[in-house]
# Entry
Amino acid sequence: MDEYEAPADRAFRAEVRDWLETALSGDFAHARGLGGPGREHEAFPERLAWERHMAAGGWTCLGWPEEHGGRGATVAQQVIFNEEYALANAPARVGHIGENLLGPTILAFGTDAQRARFLPPIAAVEELWCQGYSEPDAGSDLANVQTRAALDGGDWVIDGQKVWTSLAVEADWCFAVCRTEPGSSRHRGLSYLLVPMRQPGVDIRPIVQLTGTSEFNEVFFDGARTDAANIVGAPGDGWRIAMATLGFERGVATLGQQVGFRRELDGVVELARRTGAIDDPLLRDRLVRAHMGLEIMRLNATRTMAGVEAGAPGPESSISKLVWGTWHRELGELAMDVLGAAGTVADGAPYELNDWQRLFLFSRADTIYAGSNEIQRNIIAERVLGLPRDPAPAASAPTASTSSASTSSASTSSASTSSASTSSREARG
# Structure
């Protein structure tokens, strides 16, 4: 607890702490610590039931306006909630893509009818969402999207493929960037569509990752349909909306993500104590640096959230992705160094991994998905610092986009690092 917290915030912290302690006893006592990166498959029905219990208690969508199912919580209160959630070792969230990405986007850019239709089921955790951004040839270079959508009467008809779509198997809806203007290219002619997942014409194929699990999926649209009204913003305005969603992900959603990060760091510290690795001055220094990095991440997320309160986030939000992606990958490496030689041996046949091995393997992709580190540095350099763009390649050389904005993490990602163009956690497409 921060001794300088305002009395109202201190009271809010006590309320959160008391509720979590009570709620995570009894029927939900077994849910503590479930889920997280590389473990999104873990106890999904139980975690869904837990999150619906949270919703019934009014603890989802805290930052949303009260008239849309939230609490109108301040930035400080949202930070407090996420800190207490981590301290309580509460389970990893299942509705974060809808709550932290799609919800704020609908609030900022949606119609009144869209807010009335889509926000209440998100707040109640009755409908889950996934993100349809990445494609085989449109990873960090999202502007190369080729999935098409065309109006047919009162529906958009969608054809194409998305990949690395987090939790697509569990999702009821997908927000997808599609090319709706024939002959358009790059950032022009894209639209932001809301597409039901449980319909003919949607084929979901899980992707087995290095961790052996399948949080991520390929999604094929073959004549899938959605109502013509299920477009956020105007036709052709999808790039602007999609970039705003990424900004929300790298701001508010980063705090939710840090719930798991804090728990993982605490676990690595405890592991170092148990194995005696904490007596190694080099490892102890890295543990201290990891703690400092997490605090910097928290402060940066808080700063980003303060900007979000004034409107849609800007390109500065790329700083968050660069910070957390690098930090989390280094935490996985640190965990393996703490384990030492024992970290190279699986817990069981044929491929039973412990939590630290899974963290190491999963976090290899953190600096690639949701926009690679290279892409984020270009965005920060060109759009935040105002530095000149890289010179265009010679006409005879292969072209590559290095300055387009990236896709989301929170919400989709790959635990395979075989392609540097792979993008988006997403938690989380």
About this structure: The first strand starts at residue 129 and ends at 132. Residues 258-384 form a domain with the Butyryl-CoA Dehydrogenase, subunit A; domain 3 fold (CATH 1.20.140.10). The chain has a mean pLDDT of 83. The two ends are 36 Å apart (CA to CA).
